[in-house]
Amino acid sequence: MPELFTVVTPDEALKRLLSHLNAAIESENVKTNMALARVTSEEVIAESALPSFPRSTMDGYAVIAHDTYGASEGLPAYLNVVGEIPMGRSSDLKLKRGQVAKVHTGGMVIEGADAVVMVENTQQVDAKTIEVVRPVAPGENVIQIGDDVKTGEVFLTAGHWLRPQDIGGLMGLGITRLWVSRRPRVVIISTGDEVAAPEDKLTPGKIRDINTYTITCLALQAGAVPLSLGIIPDDYGALKAAAERGLEMGDIVVISAGSSVSTRDMTADVISSLGEPGVLVHGVSIKPGKPTILAVVDGKPVIGLPGNPVSAMVLFDHIVVPAIFRLMGCDKPPRRQSTQARLGHNVASIPGREDYVQVKLEERDGETWAIPVFGESNLIATLVKADGMAMIPLDKSGINQGDYVTVRLF
Amino acid sequence: MPELFTVVTPDEALKRLLSHLNAAIESENVKTNMALARVTSEEVIAESALPSFPRSTMDGYAVIAHDTYGASEGLPAYLNVVGEIPMGRSSDLKLKRGQVAKVHTGGMVIEGADAVVMVENTQQVDAKTIEVVRPVAPGENVIQIGDDVKTGEVFLTAGHWLRPQDIGGLMGLGITRLWVSRRPRVVIISTGDEVAAPEDKLTPGKIRDINTYTITCLALQAGAVPLSLGIIPDDYGALKAAAERGLEMGDIVVISAGSSVSTRDMTADVISSLGEPGVLVHGVSIKPGKPTILAVVDGKPVIGLPGNPVSAMVLFDHIVVPAIFRLMGCDKPPRRQSTQARLGHNVASIPGREDYVQVKLEERDGETWAIPVFGESNLIATLVKADGMAMIPLDKSGINQGDYVTVRLF
Fold first, then answer.
1. pTM for this predicted structure
2. Cβ of A172 and B209 within 8 Å?
3. Which residues of B touch A235 (CB under 8 A)?
4. Which of A207, A409, B68, B310 could staple B135 via S-S, CB 3.0–4.6 A?
């Protein structure tokens, strides 16, 4: 049975899939210091201010700004040192006009004081007296209460992907636990009578499973929990049973199809039979990766990926990763790692198709060049030799040597 | 005591540090499917070929190429179908002149056959006969044994950072375990009498620890094992004891200094006292992050980071991450995630200093703009609001609005 594709663009394919994924996944309460790369499932409100006291940003003297007005090298202000503010503690000291107190960076600006004079703009006269040679304005060199974060402020919105500084900031606010979306479970099914488990002795005609492991790693990188159902033979009933089990266990089911057209057709038939709304897209205008199937069954994506490793990677990146983030409620996933580079050879393409070419990056005269690694798209060695994939946009008939391309880095 | 800096450039600082880190860390044998983002500690040789049999890249017929020579629409070659090659198995079939066998993509090209004719270039005449309307050359539509990976070939070099496709390829070669460098242990010490644990009730004058958690996450992202020794008071003996314990436990010691100059000086004194060769750099021409200390003690880096969160992030990224990869024996660490963008405002700098400005990214008319998020460098909120840091190179006195900058993404 020949495949009847109504091919759609990669963006359209993703749009159709995401339009069916509106229900948020459950959330769970976790320790903040274990929440790196998780996604907040609700707004995080600051319950306290940062800083919680006026802090000096300089080493110097806490002063009453008015006392320094008009001070200069020629006509310094002479002020009375009444003590030193300890780090990490409040102080009973309270400034009156004409008085200053020694303060360290990060120390409290005590009652009465409204600014800090840098130590560089002072001169010690005696144990109790300094000269100030430059005036300060009220608030100068002071971080006021809440200047960093105000009490009651939205510190993080819902759907925020947590980075190192977010974790640090939450801890800085004393928020040691928070609600995040559960990690979506991505169930991975490999099909193909020719596919064997890597641990097993290879018999003639078999190849070892590659895609289960590549996809597992890609799912991990995206913050999902990968679950493999192993290798399913080219049998409609067996594949359907596995897919149904996947839908029960997981939030997304990814089927890595066998290489033959008949297996791909069977995979399509199985996906079509699983439930509503069913197949949304069969065929994406992308190379490699055209024979991709996007379906949704009871709110869960079921993605049929082509069997060759490169196609599987390209499509996982384009379709499955955004679906994972959508399920976690993240509207602003981390940007894909990419770079601009000049293309090392002419590369032909077909308008109306997005092409991905595996490239190695080389630095030449301070510029980054993307040198295509030519090879069949179903060879793993080209993927291992490559640093990334150069993208030839949908509307181009090719890219000339020396032109700039965007390279999605591995 | 004022600090006496002999400031060096960020590149020179890193070079000095790495020149002392030549001993490789120990290696360990791990399961390949658990080795994502680890670094190979020795070459990986392919012990078998990929594919291990000649594979068809098309659905069609295995043929003897010679039998198709001269075939055309007008004058097809009539060939005798002797059977179908099963997927995933060898076949007893053996072609003689004039014979073909049906084959699927990924199926074995059997003995006697030397090419595959695509099904599209054939016509079924009867159950036993096809017409071939286009000739094929020997080897056409066939991946030969070892075309992907040859037996005995170096599949991965030592010091290779393992990506999803590398894991897939290793499994495809039946390499289910491999040797990787142990994850370096990064010991994190926070100092400062003003720093409190996030779990504790905050007393006046204290701020909660941010850097321990930010640095822990950055170390995790780089593939290291973070170990926190907690918050050490501003006491020479206590800090020295902690640093010595860190050197025993860890491969890298990172001290996040308190904010005051006196604490920073004490941190410098402690680092100087730990052993040989000791302090290599005290002061880096980078903003924020100048008061950074780089030392090596008995082959282990000891890094004194400034206390404010932004400086700590910038310097960790520049200095500690490359050191982690060097210890793992990785000469080609994953590229930093960065993007080109147009700067949203004029930003002044000083020639001879690398400046980092926190920016938000915005798309405007198909271009990415980097809009500076202004704020004190010791505010965590600016880091949380920012998408990355725009870099103003060492030799520039600033960058004009609309000029292109490289943004290191968080």
1. 0.94
2. yes
3. none
4. B68
